[in-house]
Amino acid sequence: MDADFSELHGKTAIVTGASSGIGLATARLLAKNGVRVGLVSRSKETLEELSGKLPGSRPIPADMTKIPQIKKMVAAAMKQFGRIDILINNAGQGYDAPVEKTGIGTFRYIYDLNVIGPLVAMQQVIPCMRAQGGGSIINISSGTALMNLPGMSAYSSSKRALAGISLAARLELQADKIVVSVVYPYITRTNFEKNTIHVVPEPEDNREPAGRYPPDSAEFVAEKIVGGIVSGEPEIFSHDWMKAPRSGA
Ligand SMILES: NC(=O)c1ccc[n+]([C@@H]2O[C@H](COP(=O)([O-])OP(=O)(O)OC[C@H]3O[C@@H](n4cnc5c(N)ncnc54)[C@H](OP(=O)(O)O)[C@@H]3O)[C@@H](O)[C@H]2O)c1
Questions:
Q1: Is residue 245 part of a domain?
Q2: Is the CB of 15 inside a 6 Å radius of any atom of ligand 1?
Q3: DSSP-assigned letters across all residues of 138-178
Q4: Could you say which of 108, 114, 153, 173 would form a disulfide bridge with 158 (CB–CB 3.0 to 4.6 Å)?
């Protein structure tokens, strides 16, 4: 049986990266529990089609690497819903490259998307949430933020930065009843691996990431994320064993 999150009924949320994978499963789970969701990604048509299937949702296309578009997106969500109770900063992308071969332009792009985009979205929603008397911000980091992984320095460090920002903001915003949490998903079956930028192209038959345990489903991670909104825990791990620092997948 699906977990019951009906206490969220009537709330409003922004979910970035809602067109695919973890964001899509999270948007679906929220809508199923009566949350009105602003669906954000670059794929306008996909979001429009999805919005038709999720009652109360609205497509709000935006490129999360473009600061003016992020500001417009939050303003549009406020205009549509009148309030923003939940922000889920989920849009993100991987970049596999050894430090020596890391392209500075690509590194900057990954930081724009994985760190600065979420930071700007937080800056836009904080005044709205403060004026409303509170809210929840959930930032999707990664299990790689807890590990030292050769070939993943740009991505894993961007996710460490996002976790650090989240936990500092949590303390800063406590008095405003704005609860900031960070989620660390384990390897999850989505388009993430396909969309990861590889400095050395991967062979076609080597797309499935190798981990110690089988990958999770996006729906499993969505339950962790929505559960985190309800529990307000600072750090949410897909699996308890991820809490111990480790050096490999
Ligand atoms: N899958 C995993 O194994 C895994 C593990 C740990 C953490 N994560 C994290 O989980 C989050 C979701 O990833 P996923 O696995 O669901 O991957 P995914 O299937 O590739 O989905 C990524 C989402 O981000 C959106 N996105 C990408 N670039 C964007 C941009 N510039 N502006 C706006 N939206 C953008 C994509 O939408 P458009 O292309 O339509 O813009 C898509 O909706 C990411 O932050 C990822 O780092 C994933």
A1: no
A2: no
A3: EEE--GGGGS--TTBHHHHHHHHHHHHHHHHHHHHHGGGTE
A4: 114
The answer to whether residue 149 is domain-embedded is: yes
- How far apart are the C-alpha atoms of 47 and 104, rounded to whole Å? 31
pLDDT digits (tens, 9 = 90+) for 48-72: 999 999 999 999 999 999 999 999 9
Phi, psi (degrees; rounded to nearest 5) at 87: -120, 125
**Cα three-residue angle 13-145-106, rounded to 5 degrees:** 85
**Residue % of the chain over a pLDDT of 90:** 91
Quick: pLDDT tens for 166-204. Answer: 999 999 999 999 999 999 999 999 999 999 999 976 655
**Cβ atoms 97, 44 nearer than 8 A:** no
SS3 89: strand
Q: Read off the CATH number of the domain in which 163 is found.
A: 3.40.50.720
As a whole number of angstroms, the distance between CA 222 and CA 103 comes to 32
Q: 38: helix, coil or strand?
A: strand
Asked if pLDDT for residue 150 goes beyond 70, the answer is: yes
Residue 249 lies in a domain: no
247, part of any domain: no
* Domain total of the chain: 1
Phi, psi dihedral angles at 138 (to 5 degrees): -120, 120
Query: How close is the Cα of 175 to the center of ligand 1, in Å?
Result: 31
Query: What is the span of the domain harbouring residue 68?
Result: 6-238
Q: Ligand 1, closest atom to CA 194?
A: 20
